[in-house]
Amino acid sequence: MKKTALVVGASGIVGSATASRLLSEGWTVHGLARRPVEQPGVRPVAADLQDADGTAEALTDVRPDSVFITTWLRQPTEAENIRVNAGMVRNLLDGLRASGGGVRHVALVTGLKHYLGPFEAYGKGELPETPFRESQGRLDVANFYYAQEDEVFAAARRDGFSWSVHRPHTVIGKAVGNAMNMGTTLAVYATLCRETGRPFRFPGSAAQWNGLTDMTSASQLARHLLWAATTPAAADEAFNIVNGDVFRWKWMWARIADWFGLEAAPFDGTVIPLEDQMRDDAPVWRRIAEREGLAEADLDRLASPWHTDADLGRPFEVMTDMGKSRRLGFLDYQPTDDAFFDLFAQLRADRVIP
Q1: Which of 93, 134, 167, 255 has a C-alpha 20 to 30 A away from that of 336?
Q2: Cβ(234)–Cβ(228) under 8 Å?
Q3: Is 145 annotated in the active site?
Q4: Which of 115, 145, 174, 189 is catalytic?
Q5: 4-168 has which fold?
Q6: pTM of the predicted structure, to 2 decimals
């Protein structure tokens, strides 16, 4: 029997990868976004999740078996993050109930700020030891991830569907206009360094340069979402999800430099944020884009240096444990350097970078 999915945030890094994976497995896929983009095989649903009535109306004829929530809206304060993002989840699930229900599973994508705290309290106070494990629970701090979870849990009790929560580390994947996009940010930064002759400097901390870390490719996360939605033992569980390898940035930085034909600049431990390095690069990128016929000339729609700085500037080691998923049968693996190189090749093929 053919299964039907609703991917919420279908045009984002995680949502687009999830939609592609589901389509490849024979699912019917509805893709919800405020302004849907054309995605082959995906049935667009235009809805602003902040508008409860409009969301319900947009979902009138949508009857998914499984729902994948892969979106959020960044706000200026955590209190606003909680109000807006919890409200979006509530409006979505209320709208699906009003359309006739039938949802069997809801998957929510959050992230490691579950363990590290929200942007306002990021990495502060007493943090759990690494590698982070799902059994470590919530921090004693307000966090919109927790508020989103609570909305899913409440609707599951009311409507009888199963749920899963997925906590990736930094996600590697393609999406234009995404607020958290390290892979494309680094590709754009490398291109700018090659264009201007500036050194390809690691922007972060010595702890990140020397310490072990891990990441999550969007394709790995998509496989994990599908696995949890179709594996009874994974129902009503929260999971970490990473690629399965670990690395040090002093190794990865040289690998990325080499892909772009650059020499990695020596690192002396000084933090030089990308936000500072790229502050005046918009005209340079526009010139490159016009000369090379690139698909996007607006640097702000490609690069998110603030988010890359937050990840690479952390003064402590961050790794996650995947034992819970492994014990239940999820054994997929994705080398992180390959995930970066696959993304860079896709960006080049799509004329996002020259």
Answers
A1: 134
A2: yes
A3: yes
A4: 145
A5: Rossmann fold (3.40.50)
A6: 0.95
